[in-house]
Amino acid sequence: TVIGYPGETVTIKGAGCNVAGAKYLIIKDMVIDVNSGANEGFYQGNGSYLRLHNVEVKNALQQNILLAGSDAGGGFCEFINVNSHDSGKIGNFDFEYHGIYVTTNGNLIDGGLWHDNPYGTGIQLYPNPQNNTVKNARVYSNMANYPDRQGFVIYGSGNVVYNCLVYNHITSNGLKFSTGGNFCYGSTFWNNNDSA
C-alpha cells in the first residue's frame, strides 16, 4: 500500500507508475502528474486486484490509465474517486488517448471525474472486456479534437453503467455501446452531440 501523508499533497511527477504484473496493490491520496514524461500515467499489464483511491492522474503522452492484459491475466481492479484529465499530450491524430483505457475483465470504476481528454474518451472499455462496472462517474468535455466520436465507449459484454453523468461532449457523442449484452440505467446525459 502506498498512501499520501495526511494533510499534504503527494505528487509523483514525470515518470508515471508502471505496475505491470503487480497484485494486491493500493495507491491512495496522491497525484500522478506525468508532465509529458511517460506514455502512461498508470500502467497495469496482466496485474490484478489493484486499487487507485482518491488519485489524480494527468498529462500523459498517451493514456492516463491503461489496463491491459490477456484473458488469463489482469483485471479485477478498482478505481475509486479518480480524477483523470488532459491525456494525449503527444497530440498524434493517428490514435486516441483516453482518461482510462480498459481491456480486462471484472473491474470497478466508482465515482471520479473523467474529463478534458481532448484526443480520447473519458472512459473506454475495448476491445472485448467483460463484466466491468462503471457507477457514479462524471464523464465530460472529452474528444474535443475528434469530431463525431464519443466521450464514453463500452465494447465487450456484461458491462454495466449506472448513476453516471455524461455531458458537454460538444463535438462528439456522449455514450456508445458498440456490442450487445451491456446495460446502462439511472444515468443522465446532456449537452452532447447526440441524445446520448
Write a structural description:
The protein has 196 residues and is mostly beta strands. It is 0% helix and 42% strand. It is built from no helices and 21 strands. The strands form two sheets. Strands 1, 2, 4, 6, 8, 9, 11, 12, 14, 15, 17, 18, 20 and 21 form a 14-stranded parallel sheet that branches. The N and C termini lie far apart (38 Å).
Instruction: Please tally the β strands and state the result.
Output: 21
* Mean pLDDT, all residues: 92
Helix segment count? Answer: 0
Provide the structure class. mainly beta
Kindly state the percentage of residues in helix. under 10%
> How would you sum up the major sheet?
14 strands, parallel
**Oligomer kind:** single chain
How far is it from the N-terminal to the C-terminal residue, by CA? 38 Å
- What is the string of helix and strand elements? EEEEEEEEEEEEEEEEEEEEE
What gross morphology would you assign? Answer: globular
Proportion in β-strands: 35-45%
What are its keywords?
196 residues; seven-stranded parallel β-sheet; mainly beta
